[in-house]
Fold this protein.
Amino acid sequence: MRILVTGGAGFIGSALVRHLVRDVGAEVLNVDKLTYAGNLASLKTIENAPNHRFFKADICDGVAMHAAFTEFRPDRVMHLAAESHVDRSITGAADFVQTNVMGTFQLLEVARRYWNGLQGAEKDAFRFLHVSTDEVYGSLGDEGLFHETTPYDPSSPYSASKAASDHLAIAWQRTYGLPVVVSNCSNNYGPYHFPEKLIPLIILNALEGKPLPVYGLGVNIRDWLFVEDHARALHLIASKGQVGEKYNVGGRNERRNIDVVSRVCEIMDRHNPSGGPHERLINYVTDRPGHDARYAIDATRLETELGWKALETFDTGIEKTVAWYIENDWWWKPLRDKVYSGERLGVLKKD
Ligand code: NAD
């Protein structure tokens, strides 16, 4: 099995590539532009694997993508490359539209040309998995869950750009017959998570005795999924998912942001009692503009039709995650020092 993965130096992409290379034994071509969020250090455990190749390229570059397809001849594409941070999309949406919308369009076009040239069993077996987010569905009230049929209602420039890319992917299936499958996942967390996102930011600030920023009242709810459970789900969906269909991915782990932060503080108190109680570092800050109140995924289809089950609960996954950051400062220290040191992003200037 030859799999072309885009965004494989990012958080979820690197977890997926490690899974495909080590556990599945697939041949992987990892295509990534290495933006601030891409990091080859996340692939250190597979750096000598003969079945992994890295190709630094932009998915918006049609010539480079065409070369990647014709030389590697993938049986499958798993498309994760994206700009992914909501706060950054609020202060600068251009890169999100460029990569998430135009880049996906470019990749679909190159894949379509390549797939049109395949024949017989190779053509029938080809799949293009487009990896997306539950944020495309907008915000839930106190009740209810996102289903695959929930209408799209994105709130942020990030989620709007992902919604646009989902529509393109489905349209390329309906119009051109390209064998596309789409997945929509809830918030991920785990090792190798770039420290701009809530959980790694809180862990590292707590480790360094810095304030722990909580947006608004901290009552927004997210449905947390351990990243390795997501990686397994993606492989399953790409292998067994029905062409033209969507699959929601989520771990049934709804938590208020403030409860996530408090849990991290409790774990840090155990690991580092002299720095505690870490809850004293909690600092409520101005809310994110357009902050969705609640996300919650119904993953019944993935569980019943494809037999997926999350292996981690939030409690087991968050313990592993905190322990990983404590043991792996070689990975995050260079990022904190040179790429992003934790300053607030996504605040609108009054002008
Ligand atoms: P990430 O920001 O950690 O990684 C994105 C990767 O894409 C980086 O390695 C970056 O270098 C690469 N990239 C960006 N622009 C590119 C371009 N133009 N060409 C080639 N590579 C480019 O993101 P992530 O959290 O790993 O998310 C991966 C995918 O999963 C995204 O499509 C995202 O929308 C989706 N998703 C994320 C979450 C989450 O909780 N993080 C949840 C559901 C879905």
Notes: The CA atoms of residues 115 and 123 lie 6 Å apart. The first helix runs from residue 11 to 24. Residues 2-188+223-253+294-300 form a domain with the Rossmann fold fold (CATH 3.40.50.720). The chain has a mean pLDDT of 97.
